[in-house]
Amino acid sequence: MNKSIKRLFAAAAAGLLIGAVHLPSAAQGGLRPEVGKPLQAAQDLVKAGKYREALAKVRELDAVGGKTAAETNTIERMRLAAASGAGDAETAARSFEAISASVAGPDKLRMIESIAGTYYRSKEYAKAMQWYQRYFKEGGTSAANRTLLIQTQYLSGDLAGATKELMAEIQAAEKNGTAPAEDRINLLMNAAVKQKDIAGETFALERLVSYYPKKEYWVTLLNRLQRKPNFSDRLVLDTYRLSLATGSMSTATDYMELAQLTVQAGFPAEGKKVVDKGFAAGVLGTGAEAERHKRLRDLVTKKIDEAKAAQAADEKQALAAKDGNDLVNVGMGLVLDGQSAKGLQLMQQGIAKGGLKRPDDAKLHLGIAQVMAGENVKAQATFKTVSGNDGTADLARLWALYARRAKV
Hints:
The protein is mostly helical. 73% of the residues lie in helices and 0% in strands. It contains 21 helices and no strands. Helix 7 runs antiparallel to helix 8 and helix 19 runs parallel beside helix 21. The longest helix has 31 residues, at 290-320.
């Protein structure tokens, strides 16, 4: 916290408190002159922003004997205001404890808030956290103070406490139909990383790509997915597809790998789209590997011609098969070739026919095909049916997050 912000923080704290200090005259049965005059001077100093001088003026009153309860109460209120402005949290806290029994309502909350803020700007985060917790225990409701409480929990090392508060805040926002603040989700993710809480980190990352779908968030999330011990290599193609869809693919190697995988899987039309995007983005067709990129483009074009020549026979064979595996693959190929309606029909027919080698893979691919066809609502419903502990369900959930925000 820089000095100017500290000064503003101090002025706000003292300003909040000085309004709670009333200086009754001796005629009102309040303060004697030997008490009232120094307090008036201290009050003027606080208003002028001269907090240390004000605190010194209040200390002069410690030598005055025979003080009444009302005089002591007023002195401690002024001491609290001056100490808060001066950044002397310990003195402010002692003054508060001395008068806490006689303070209630908004005045009490202002005092607690001021002490918490004084500890915060002094970077005594553990103590600041205790006072912010006390603020809410006393009935405080300030959203700004809730934010500062979470900050102090995080900075003081109470990561579990910060996580609990952040989770509650994020879930409450979602329940109300509003997007949680990006910085709050990031703070939750950082807390999870420090605690080695994989589930918490995943929760935060999935919220980030849901509400703030930046390239770097998708890159991190997809990399984490592929590093999971149980993640199956057969899902690499579908992961690359999601990387391309979310705009998080950037290297020539990735474009080349994805294009080659699509050709190997029997989807050259998809491969051509990948290669075309790579060339359009200036990632392919340049540099030392430019000729290799062009050879891949020629190969993809050749494979497309071969696939079209065999399309009718492949479809007839798939329809005659006892199981639905070939129907799912032929249908996927048609969707990728731009024949969405017919392709989706064949895929659904294949899944209904049964006998699938990997039923969850088939449902995952149907969901992806629905996204590519612009049927995002149907895709989200399909992804919910995907299970499996080899990464299939995890990948389906990420595709569902993308489908929720993708343009139809």
